[in-house]
Amino acid sequence: MSSPADLPVETTPLLEVTDLVKDFPIRSKGAIRRTVGMVQAVNGVSLHINRGETLGLVGESGSGKSTIARCILRLIQPTSGSVRFKGQELAGLSRRQLQAMRRNMQIVYQDPMASLDPRMTVSAIISEPLRIHRTTSDIGARVGELLELVGLRPEHGNRYPHEFSGGQRQRIGIARALALEPDLIILDEPVSALDVSIQAGVLNLLEDLQRQMGLTYLFVAHDLSVVRHISDRVAVMYLGRIVETGTGPEVYETPAHPYTQALLSAVPIPDPKLEKRRRRIVLEGDAPNPASPPSGCRFRTRCWKAESICTEYDPELLDLGIGHPVACHFPTPDDLMGSEQG
Amino acid sequence: MADVPVGILAGTPSQTEARSQWQLVLRRFLAHRLAVAAGVVLVAAYLFSYLAEPLTGWGYKDLSPDLSQGPSGDHWFGTDTIGHDMFAQSMRGLRVSVHVSVVVAGIATVLGSVLGAVQGWFRGRVDGALGLLVDFLLILPLLPVLMVLGTRTRASGGSSLMFVAVIIGLFLWAPLARVVRGEVFSIREKEYIEAAEALGASNTRIIFRHLIPNAMSSIIVYATLTVATAILLETALAFLGFGIQPPEVSLGSLVDEGRDAARTRWWLFYLPGAVLVVLVLCVNFVGDGLRDALDPRREQRR
To answer: Against a cut of 0.95, is the pTM above it?
Structure first.
């Protein structure tokens, strides 16, 4: 995605997240549910999104991507940290204030079947935000408009979600999110549940809509190639932390964190010759239990570069001369393809 | 664009005009033959109960000189010991039973679904407080309580039938609240509920637009069962001398009175009994049809 150059330069980002932490208590079974531990789903994440751009948030399942998305929308209460939207702090807003705020922030879910009420017709689903916020008097016309906008027919409004294919359902979810013309749309793995053949259609739709309406996206995904396609900037997460962030080319062409390198080396290349020659990094084991993360660097248990310093000191997310921030003690920009190509 | 072309799902052009949700429900209900038949029987029987007197010439209070006669052209359902025309009595009883059960089931269903959904949605203290009330109502021996209330009201100027129905309704919502609460615990975790919250939906909206509609299957099953329960409960009360008092009759009281005569004068027991069974069965079939009609996902399965 290219961000339009003619947009006015704003000093404050549309969304600014600082030191966001979310712990989930683990409770014992039985009548008295003592808290026996904490899962640190998100551990001190900071990020910002400027108006009109797309930030891709990548990480394996359990890395805390969706938790961040829900904390931003305050669908779950963050343990600590600040979320500022248009310069306004969201923590501590009353229920009523939050409801008003939600007009400007919407979410599209991963599973379009689960996120659409099966008892409601498509019109009822799409008109719900309009009825809640009373933005328009002619709801019927607006619903028709929205359906056309996402590539469905207005007469489809009388049908129920189960009568549609996955891709079409996701379009319904997108129409619902667009209904209030929000500034920010959080896309929580919007294409992960779809067939590959349908993903492209939905991604193109999202890009078209962004261009037409000047939308800002937070695009959460575990699929690197999907994120590369749509994002201006990318943040890679591992176990509740951002380990590397930068513009698309910075992260994809010169990944410096070993985890990012490993992830990228697993993306297939549609050229058999290149595919055979390139270096592939295979990580050992699984991600550690987030209830008891390793000391120091969280990635050290699976890192081939790990040394004693990694056990003791947690690397901060800093730009150590690479050109973009990386949370690693030994960042080395690695041109995964270049070295082998020569 | 690799998406499925939208035209595939568009269907025939004639389907394109807007249909409201209720039209869809009605259409699906009409597709359910048994339910439609039961509904027709129910409505017809209810309307017919008003025609019984002009048609046969006997009112439910009238005493004919024919005592204890079997069914005949004059007395379709026969007569009892003191000469009541059993057909007139059955039709009167049908009407009374329908009124009572509709009021009871209506009150119990509305209270049970709303309070159960409120429990399941708010959890915590609200759930605890209402839960206590539900527990209390569930352990109360219903019949003695209703008898006490019946005597009380009779002392203060006579208990009308509807009053008894309202009281029964106020006691019967507790089991449904339990069921709905449990359903809501599962529905509330669904993503579309979170989606509604993300849209800024109020608690009221979530409860009435999302939680209750999605618990509708259980609610309707319970409502139809409650109709049957109400008829039986009203019968039991009548037997004990509360609620319905002679000369007023209900299907329950007729069956009850005819019980002893089942072997000798079968018509006194089996004919009103048959009306009662048909009534309850029809209500259940209509309930089945409603449940299916209100659930858009069921359409494909039948």
So the answer is: no
